[in-house]
Structures are given as C-alpha cells and as structure tokens.
Amino acid sequence: MDTLKKKIEEIMSAISFAEEGEFETAREFLKEERRVLLAVRKDQVDRRTFRYAVNTCKRINAALDILYISPSKAEDPTLQQYLSELTREGINYRLVQRGGCFKQAIIDYTNTIKGILFAVTESSDNLEADCKGIKASKAWKDLKCPLVVVEDSV
Length: 154
Prior knowledge:
Elements (H helix, E strand, L loop, with lengths): L1 H18 L3 H8 L4 E7 L5 H14 L2 E7 L7 H13 L3 E6 L3 H11 L3 E6 L14 H6 L5 E3 L5
Parallel strand pairs: 1-2, 1-4, 2-3, 4-5
Helix pairs in contact: 1-2
C-alpha cells in the first residue's frame, strides 16, 4: 500500500510541474530507475566483465548495482580501482556485499530490488561457487531478469 501511495504522490507532483510548464521536472518524477546488476566474487573482478557492465549502463542510461560476494569484509584493491573509475565516468552505482552461494545471492538480490534490467557476471564456473544442495535448474527458474555471462576466452 505504501508503494501505491508513493507512486500516486509522484504522479500528482509530476502533474503540478507539468501544469506550470516544467516538463523536464515532470518527466523526472515519472522516470523509473533502470539498473544493471554486476555480480562478482572476491578477487575475481574481471576487467572485461566490468567494462561490459559499464558500457551497457552508459548506452541505456542505467545505474549500476555491484553485488560483491565475499566471505569477509576485506577490501579488494582491484574493485576499489573500478569504483573510482565509475565515479570519474559519472556512473551512478551502489556496492552491496554478501556472502554465501553466488547464484542464490543473485536471485535474492533481483527478487528484492526493482528495476534490475539484467544481471552480468563473469565465467559460468563462478555460478556454482559455495552452493551446496541448491539445484541449478530450480534456482535459475526463480531469476526475475536475464543473466548475461561474459565467458573467458579459451
């Protein structure tokens, strides 16, 4: 119910601005946030996968969510370098750290966060990491968006 109430308030605000001739401001109220999810594991942040996600965000004017799967809170220097690149390039991003099963973390995140257009991850070998007892076919049926796997070349 709160979501509906918020949406109605946004629509009414947009109408008010449009009536006053502020059409760009009105559009901003009605614009849904589009997001791309980049799912990576600790110490396995691939440059090509990162660039794929960033370039896609630029092309479709979307924000980037980075789901960083790591058993500890230790910082990854490569990831920090990529985050500073995002800031320089003006990409709106948020970093979320989780532990546990890689594919389950992706599924849980996409089920929770609205506006995820698709998820990007590196090699399909990572998808099964730390997933004991979770059937792959069952788990992926619960994914609410397309999954793009940027595979390493052989």
